[in-house]
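Input (structure):
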């Protein structure tokens, strides 16, 4: 997974952000207006849940547990005037979560699943100031992003004592988001809220044990975040609470020898918190 070109790209953007800040981060700006851009780095934890369902809507399995998140961002979302806003966010994540489901014969199986991956987003939008409201500004936001992860399910034994082989799946998802944002200014801090809808633009799922590529269906899902950031000059700590999700419908079946394989309807939900520092 570490050789995935998307992961290498994400690492490159993080390095670029770190390199640009000393060179351009002190760009002068008008009083009350943010600098040309800010750079931030963060670490956090998220509760991850993956569920799959059969054609009748019955749940086939649940994977759930904590994942560690590490990333960085380059943005101008702290600006105090109307105009264009943007955010470049790159993160990596990994975790070992619990798997509770069933084998191909419907017999209960419990094991572990390891996740590792990375995501990059480019967000652009426009900010309107609000002089007659408790909200300082409103944003309209559009996002393009890419997400790549490996899902590594361990070997196990089912409830009848028979061994069950694990499998490895690699996902690459390109997606778009549309949302709104709101900024509040406080005496010694600021806060920012985002809410919107997200839809995959393309999905590629590689199942190594079958050497087959699947294409789950693309469905709308929701996302939201709330950030509270210290005010003042210099380095500013912040905390962000967020929710993210995917909704995939059942993929078309693919032939493998004398049988067929497909990805069932799948839901992913993530709720987490990150602690960051604006440099």
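Output (sequence):
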């Amino acid at each position: 997974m570490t050789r995935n070109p998307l992961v290498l790209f994400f690492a490159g953007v993080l390095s670029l952000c770190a390199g640009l800040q000393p060179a351009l981060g002190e760009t002068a700006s008008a009083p009350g207006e943010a600098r040309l851009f800010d750079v931030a780095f963060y670490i956090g934890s998220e509760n991850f849940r993956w569920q799959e369902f059969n054609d009748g809507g019955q749940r086939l399995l649940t994977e759930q547990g904590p994942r560690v998140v590490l990333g960085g961002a380059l943005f101008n979302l702290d600006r105090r005037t109307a105009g264009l806003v943007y955010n470049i966010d790159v993160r990596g994540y990994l975790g070992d979560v619990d798997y509770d489901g069933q084998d191909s014969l419907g017999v209960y199986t419990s094991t572990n699943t390891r996740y590792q991956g990375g995501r990059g987003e480019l967000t652009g939008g426009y900010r309107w100031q609000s002089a007659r409201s408790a909200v300082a500004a409103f944003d309209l936001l559009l996002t393009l992003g890419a997400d790549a992860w490996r899902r590594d399910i361990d070997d196990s034994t089912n409830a009848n004592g028979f061994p069950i082989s694990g499998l490895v799946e690699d996902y690459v998802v390109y997606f778009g988001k549309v949302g709104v944002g709101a900024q509040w200014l406080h005496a010694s801090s600021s806060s920012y809220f985002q809410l919107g809808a997200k839809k995959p633009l393309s999905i590629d799922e590689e199942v190594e044990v079958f050497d087959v590529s699947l294409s789950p269906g693309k469905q709308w899902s929701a996302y939201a975040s709330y950030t509270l950031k210290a005010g003042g000059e210099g380095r500013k700590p912040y905390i962000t609470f967020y929710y993210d999700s995917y909704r995939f419908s059942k993929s078309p079946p693919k032939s493998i020898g004398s049988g067929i394989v497909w990805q069932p309807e799948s839901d992913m939900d993530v709720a987490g918190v990150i602690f960051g520092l604006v440099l």
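Notes: The mean pLDDT is 89. The longest helix spans residues 5-24.
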